[in-house]
Amino acid sequence: MAVGRVTSLLRGRGLFGGRPATVTLRLEGGPLRLDGVPLADYAYVPSARTTAIAAKQAGKTRKIGTVEHLLAAFGGLGVHDGVAIELEGDELPILDGAAAGWCAALVELGAPRSAPPSRIARPGEVRVGASIYRFAPCSLREVAVALDYPEAHLELRAEWRGDPDDFVRRVAPARTFALAREIAALAEGGMMAHVDPESVVIVDEHTVHSAGVPAASDEPARHKLLDLVGDLVLHGGPPEGRIEAFRPGHAATHEIMARARAMGIVVDR
Predict the structure, then answer these.
(1) Alpha-carbon radius of gyration of the chain
(2) End-to-end Cα spacing for the chain
(3) pTM of the complete model
(4) For residue 2, pLDDT beyond 70
(5) What is the DSSP string of 44-56?
(6) Distance between CA atoms of 72 and 250, rounded to whole angstroms?
């Protein structure tokens, strides 16, 4: 492994804060590190519509927003160590609104792949509010999601069976989305001021709208699958085994995975 090699810098603006951000990915031995701190030392911070994490740095708390798309690239490609992430800013850039750009950067870097550091040891089910996650041991990394939206034209299920090439081809390009009924509130909150229209899709009661690549009816479900893969990275996953998530969400995932570990459903390898 060519330690010290650096990819091209990735620049953009945060999805929610809209502030400029620059990310550098560097091959470096040891665990995944974000701004010099092992990723395992970061904790989930409750945030609306996204995953934010925080850790102590030089006696101060460093909070970083919208990490799920980058982490999805790590999880989908099976990269569990050997990379240092350096961020200038407080939120990762939205890039393509998905994980395709992050995957391309990790592939260009030559990031090492390895077996997942965790596994599902026994069957189990964990519920938080309306979210239900079911766990089952198996020899693959399998992640499935089922959504619960009233829009009849949507395909509400998506599944990934652990193949990195399939993740890059089918899951990573799925863009972030918003429901048409939410747009006014999002705009009023300033959350969409700097969003490239091609990096997001809009779902109304009749169809899925996109300004760039035509959207498919299952793209929102595939993006939820992408988000779940990214969130699982913070818990040593996606683990070896199968997870089926009904009504997945960022906050639900982090609480459910903490419970699953406490219950001995998910364990370190």
Answers:
(1) 18
(2) 24
(3) 0.92
(4) no
(5) EE--TTS-EEEEE
(6) 13
